[in-house]
Hints:
- This protein has 18 helices and 19 strands.
- The longest helix has 21 residues, at 222-242.
- It has 3 domains: 21-71 and 88-333, Aminopeptidase, CATH 3.40.630.10; 391-508 and 567-586, no CATH class; 514-558, no CATH class.
- By secondary structure, the chain is an alpha/beta fold.
Amino acid sequence: MRRSILLLLSVLLFASKISAQSELKYEENRSLTWQESIEFYQYLDANFENCALTVVGETDAGKPLHLFIISKENMFNPAEVREAHRAVMLVNNGIHPGEPCGVDASAKFAMEILQNPSDYSSMLDSIVICIVPILNVGGSLNRGNYHRANQNGPIEHGFRANAINMDLNRDFVKLDTRNAISFVKLMRDWDPDVLIDTHTSNGSDYQYVITLIATQRDKLQAPLSNYMYEKMLPDLFSEMRKSPYEMTPYVMSFDRRNPENGIVGFMDYPRYTTGYASLFGTMGFTLETHMFKPFKDRVLSTYHFLKVASLYLAKNKSDVVNLRAMTKESLRQKRVYTLQWKLDTTKYDEFLFKGYEMKYRTSKVTGQQTYYFDRESPWEKPIRNYSYYSPQKTVQSPDFYIVPAAWKNVVELLNLNNVESYPIQKDTSLKVEYYYIDAYNTSSNAYNGHYFHSNTTVKKESGMIDFLAGDIFVPVNQTANEFIVQVLEPEAVDSYFNWNFFDPILSRKEYFSPYVFDEMAIKILEDDLMLKKEFESKRSEDSGFANDHYSQLRFIYERSDYSEKTLMRYPVSRYYLGFAEIVHLIKL
Length: 588
């Protein structure tokens, strides 16, 4: 009898635990913790077919990174999914854990699909849904009530930065974090057709609960970009109007404050999730729910978008998969790349926007004038959407880049992104193009762990360079072409140079002693009459130079054979001969 009672109690306790694991609390202004979210998906995995919770990598918090997969016929291997010609939608949550709408919305959507298999059977015939429960595990574990001063709930939420205080949504080129490394491996394994990254916005006030950032139209290849902006986005906005949560484009005001004066399309450079995804021809969507709206509505609006996007992808799977195949082939053939973009203020679209009147009042704290949005004064009118960018700087790619193996971290990151490369088998000298860094600015404050360079310019030269066995040829004839160019061309906004990977070239390693070089300089000028003429011209035109002993000697030294040739010389070379000509260098 006693044994039976104990058995009954254990069954009841187990049932209670299962029930708790399947319970969402967004209606109570509460979001799932990291542990609760993993237990939720473990419950789904244990109790339903066509789903699996897997570990796909590490995080800086020492906890694993999980991926939840919903796939018919228990097809959980990305290679099998591609062979079955199914499209893949990846939903990333909790990259900023203080913005957890997607954490709860994804759990709700996953539960609905699995509990109602007949309603979603045809959808799962066409697509596989992959969900990252929480990417920033460390930030999610760092829970509190006061991380988000501008946000209306949930009561407890995570912190923006991860366990090593990095913003993960600025890390998708430099990959300083285990979280981002794991996510990039996941992206390259699954190669999703659509990526959805869930957030909560900061900024102005308006009537909408949910806004959307789509991959910037000018960065995608034309067939895919045209399809996304002419067919997919209009349908998504239309379907969201039928839901309780009408959606608007992301509100980044043209004048930084009032959307009534127009909004600006966000340029998602490769450091961001969707910007990184677009390098490989993935259509990216960043959801930004409004910070002031109740948490329940933010969750439900995100849930509705996930549903709308999934159904659209399933219905139009063939078009999307075929266009992405065309895009990949186009990337293989691409030769001219945009490194820097500029907003085109002469082009814009108009759309009907629902806002609040911006007014001014005197602050009771400072006594100064401040603006606010009056929710008692709503308005609806057409506004301008400046979402077009034009190339500001372009480059033609070589046939190959050559990356010295000595720059190990760069080689490792190329490998991590599945970039094809071929090692040189013996020491050799090759005639190549190479850059000297001409100018750059460096931030005075650290930006996500780096003193970031910007406004970089280069001078191109050509000549013989010595290469060592193990240095790698990187061919520019692969689907990773856009990624390769954006990280290896130093003038690109998110290049490895700008992220400080090559900073050792920026400082001199050999010097001269003035008292020694003074005598040597006489002979150098005697042997180089052109240099002597340049030197004397500068002395006559620049009195400060003429009165500075060291500066004059340095002028001669830097133009002599004694000056180090690697100072400011960018180590990655550009090579133009075809693959057949390098076979003897890479053949085992």
